[in-house]
Design a protein that fits this description.
With 203 residues, the chain is α+β, with helices and mostly antiparallel strands. It is built from five helices and eight strands; from the N terminus they run H-H-H-E-E-H-E-E-E-E-E-E-H. It has a domain at 92-200: OB fold (Dihydrolipoamide Acetyltransferase, E2P).
Length: 203
């Protein structure tokens, strides 16, 4: 490469340099720029912590199931609450008015007990004002209420006489035409009477 060609190349490079037209930077300027660069805070800015994603709102289907559950609970309560608040059903019976001195009583058998209209087991709940209230605990035959009310007997406890109920006792009762029998088919639940009722109502 000759000298003339080299001068042409340097002129081309100077024209291509974008800073060729700028005045040369002095030493003081270079020192100040270096100090500014050293004093500039280059701390990396903190990135805010990621926030938890919001819980998804229940979809329409979930609300449908929740509503169905609430309706089912309300429906169950509609049946249970009235049942708990409903007053007990009451059956009123009477004692036999037959004269025990003239009435002949046959030996009690399962067939005689089973021939009645009602048969049940009950506890004496109260005796007040000459009226006995029995609470039914087991039904063997016929439809009888939760409570049975009957007048208290006042005759001697002999065959054919109306039953004289005792507080706190459990009775087995058989009736015919809403009348409690007085020939031994109804009385305190002794083992003997229990056996007769068990045979009369094996189910």
């Amino acid at each position: 490469m000759n000298r003339e060609h080299g001068d042409d190349m340097r002129r081309l490079l100077r024209r291509a340099d974008p800073a060729a037209s700028l005045a040369p930077v002095g030493d003081d300027r270079i020192t100040r720029l270096a100090e500014d660069a050293m004093n500039t805070d280059t701390t990396t800015p903190k990135v805010p912590a990621a926030q938890p994603a919001p819980s998804p709102r229940p979809g329409p289907l979930r609300w449908v199931f929740a509503g169905a559950g609430a309706l089912a609970a309300a429906g169950a309560a509609a049946f249970v609450i009235p049942a708990l608040l409903a007053p007990p059903t009451v059956t009123t019976l009477q004692l036999s008015e037959a004269d025990p001195l003239t009435q002949m009583c046959a030996q009690i058998t399962p067939e005689i007990v089973a021939s009645g209209d009602l048969a049940f087991r009950a506890d004496v709940e109260s005796i007040e004002g000459g009226v006995v209230t029995l609470r039914v605990t087991e039904r063997f035959q016929g439809e009888v209420g939760d409570l049975v009310r009957v007048e208290q007997g006042d005759d001697e406890p002999i065959d054919g006489a109306p039953i004289v109920f005792r507080a706190g006792e459990t009775y087995l009762v058989s009736t015919s035409a809403e009348t409690i029998g007085s020939c031994g088919e109804s009385g305190i639940a002794t083992p003997e009477l229990e056996a007769i009722y068990a045979e009369a109502f094996p189910g």
